Amino acid sequence: MVNLLDTTTLLWTLTAPDRLSETARNAIAAGGSVLSVASYWEVVIKTRKGLLPLADPVSWWTRAAALFPGGVLPVRASHITALAALPDLHRDPFDRVLIAQAVAEGLLLITNDRQIARYPVGIVW
User: Fold this and answer.
1) CA–CA separation, 77 vs 5, rounded Å?
2) Residue 46: C-alpha distances to residues 2, 14, 72, 77, 103 (Å)
3) How far is CA 11 from CA 15, 43, 78, 102, 107, in A?
4) Whose CA is closest to 1, among 26, 35, 36, 31?
5) pLDDT on residue 24
6) How far apart are CA 99 and CA 46, in angstroms?
7) pTM (two decimals)
8) So what's the pLDDT on residue 108?
9) Backbone angles phi, psi at 59, to 5 degrees
């Protein structure tokens, strides 16, 4: 099964892997995980707002994406269709896109966000 990392999981994987659960660490170490371009978008926005202490989010993303040979998942029309069908249980638009991508692509989402578990998506944590 292919896994999609949520943005927090990606950040912790690269900067604080001890914050990940053992199950999440093992799933990531097994390979096959993908990143979403939505996470890149979120990191850029949060960096510009001063919410993430990254000097250069573009270089950071380039390095992060290179560490995950599974690739980067673009946002497709089918993801937005899945997004439109999601109930309004979670207010974070980036998490909602990641949920929709996981649903549309049949991916497991690696996340510790308990609100996401309320959606019909497989969770690894």
Assistant:
1) 20
2) 27, 17, 19, 24, 25
3) 6, 9, 26, 19, 19
4) 31
5) 97
6) 19
7) 0.92
8) 96
9) -65, -40
